[in-house]
């Protein structure tokens, strides 16, 4: 298969495998509705905790409740989409340990597509829905002078943030080729990363903000572009054009994650069983 045909083959394989799991899920519709609602409720309680904070204070790090909700909604929606599309990659370590990854290596499809689509969980739409609802509520409460640039930046932030989180999922999966029991380490950067981004950068130390801006650029999911929309000072004194850099950051992260994945896959030597 040529290099140009691999992305097309990967998308087709992903669609077929994910579709199989969706059809299996829809066989038990009541169970699907309950698990999706449970996913929605579990993530909603995170925002309830933020609302409880604001019942005692007027601002958090100088940010109002609608502004924090704006960060929360952007982070939750972007991560929810990435978790829906690529979240199954976190199970790679288990497949490496028990040798079931070998069955994917002999199939005529890109391994990453098969790993990502494996046990596709449509119930994760609950997280996406919850994040989108909070984002919609925040937008309705914000005192922002909306310009065409700010309006266009909204979907760009969500799509770019999804791409950045997908890259983190893939890079974490590649790391599990080396350290087979590293799912919790990966979760620290995926689930932990989205929790971090739900709060304004002003409540964290400068070293941490630098780390998630220049080392693992999660700040471009919402912190940096959101400051432009809200008219706030940029974190670390970044230039104004940084608000429009998330697509470039997402492409760069995905390219580096792809290289890490290929290196990890080439180093795989099976379990020997």
From TrEMBL:
The keyword Ligase does not apply. Coiled coil: none annotated. The chain crosses the membrane at residues 30-54, 69-87, 151-179, 241-261. The keyword S-adenosyl-L-methionine does not apply. It comes from the Bacteria. Keywords: Membrane, Transmembrane, Transmembrane helix. InterPro entries: ABC-2_transporter-like. This is Transporter. It comes from Streptomyces lucensis JCM 4490.
């Amino acid at each position: 298969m040529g290099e140009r045909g691999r992305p097309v083959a990967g998308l087709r394989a992903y669609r077929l495998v994910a579709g199989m799991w969706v059809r299996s899920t829809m066989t038990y519709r009541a169970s699907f509705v309950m698990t999706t609602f449970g996913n929605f409720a579990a993530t909603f309680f995170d925002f309830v905790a933020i609302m409880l904070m604001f019942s005692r204070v007027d601002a958090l790090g100088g940010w109002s409740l609608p502004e924090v909700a704006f960060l929360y909604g952007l982070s939750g929606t972007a991560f929810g989409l990435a978790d829906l599309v690529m979240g199954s990659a976190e199970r790679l370590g288990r497949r490496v340990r028990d040798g079931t990854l070998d069955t994917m290596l002999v199939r005529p499809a890109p391994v990453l597509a098969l790993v990502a689509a494996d046990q596709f969980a449509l119930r994760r739409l609950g997280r996406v829905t919850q994040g989108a609802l909070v984002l919609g509520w925040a937008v309705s409460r914000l005192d922002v002078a909306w310009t065409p640039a700010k309006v266009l930046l909204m979907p760009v932030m969500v799509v770019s943030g999804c791409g950045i989180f997908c890259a983190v999922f893939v890079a974490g999966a590649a790391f599990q080729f080396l350290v087979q029991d590293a799912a919790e380490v990966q979760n620290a950067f995926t689930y932990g990363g989205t929790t971090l981004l739900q709060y304004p950068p002003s409540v964290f130390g400068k070293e941490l903000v630098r780390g998630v801006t220049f080392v693992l650029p999660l700040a471009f999911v919402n912190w940096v572009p959101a400051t432009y929309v809200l008219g706030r000072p940029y974190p670390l004194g970044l230039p104004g054009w940084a608000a429009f850099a998330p697509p470039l950051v997402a492409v760069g992260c995905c390219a580096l994650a792809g290289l890490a994945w290929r290196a990890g896959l080439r180093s795989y030597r099976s379990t020997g069983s």
